[in-house]
Amino acid sequence: MATKQYTGSPEDADLRRADSLARAIFSDVANKWAFLIIEALGERTLRFSELRNEVEGVSHKMLTQNLRMLERYGLVEREVHPTVPPRVEYTLTEPGQALRATVDGMCGWTHQYLGHIEAARRRFDA
Amino acid sequence: MATKQYTGSPEDADLRRADSLARAIFSDVANKWAFLIIEALGERTLRFSELRNEVEGVSHKMLTQNLRMLERYGLVEREVHPTVPPRVEYTLTEPGQALRATVDGMCGWTHQYLGHIEAARRRFDA
DNA sequence: CTGTATCCATATCGATACTG
DNA sequence: CAGTATCGATATGGATACAG
To answer: Which nucleotide C1' is nearest A60 CA?
Structure first.
């Protein structure tokens, strides 16, 4: 994410574009709902309603909003079964699976350092 | 982050507490500013003003807010040099460094899949 | 069931002013 | 220089209603 000084040179234009896109992706994807959705989809394909149950506390709106965003970036694939009632399934794509690996890392980190963190928090709050 | 059904049994109380703390940490830390700050501090210790320059686009307020949060969880250490003008340095702790590894992973992921993502986004927007 | 749109309360954020 | 406090503008998110 090194986003520092550019010269005015024309060949920097591409770098600047790539950087700004990278930053946009980073800003959109680095939020808790997206992460929790990716984590849930890591196990298996899920329907909309299943996701609502799996991702504890997510609202209808946040779920659709984040699913659209993830779909837009090609991180999840949306498959509509034209039945009635409709059935829509969400699956992680390969880039999505790759991202999931890093989210998994963060989940592991959270549990590994839970003790440290809880202690630090108590110390700080005192 | 598996946060599913609990029985009413008393021994589940600890699990529930741990889970809710883990979720709180996750919710607080999984935001772009925290990530970008951690990323910047990964290289070396930085002062407040240096961080403002390194973390492009962060406001005074967001920077202090996130630094406090990271300090509270024991992810960064704040060292005040009682000089005048004051000099405050921020350093990643060991848990912070560990988290940085996963954030690095996400940065790497972003750049690796930039092409895929940009293509997907264009397809979606059309 | 899935998805969009709307309303409305609250949270977020940037700008600014001010203190040690 | 570092940090807090305040104030508006804006975004976020939940609840609800409705459509395919």
So the answer is: D14
Closest residue in chain B to residue A55, using alpha carbons only: B3
Going from N- to C-terminal start, the domains of chain A cover 31-125
Coil, helix or strand for A77? strand
Q: What are phi and psi of B83, to 5 degrees?
A: -100, 180
Angle between helices B12-29 and A114-125 (to 10 degrees): 80
* Token pair recorded at residue B120: 């997907």
Q: Which of B's residues 72-111 have CB atoms within 7 A of nucleic strand C? A: 85-86
- Using a CB-CB cut-off of 8 Å, the residues of chain A touching B120 are 72-75
| Residue A92 parent element (H or E) | strand A87-92
pTM summary value: 0.90
pLDDT tens sequence across A112-123: 999 999 999 999
- Select from B4, B55, B13, B11 the least CA-distant residue to B34: B55
A31-125, CATH topology level:
Arc Repressor Mutant, subunit A (1.10.10)
Tell me if A10 sits within 8 A of A75, measured CB to CB. Answer: no
- At A18, the pLDDT band (50, 70, 90 cuts) reads confident
B contact test, residue of A16, A92, A117 with most B CBs within 10 A: A117
Which residues in chain B have Cβ-Cβ distances shorter than 8 Å to A125? 72
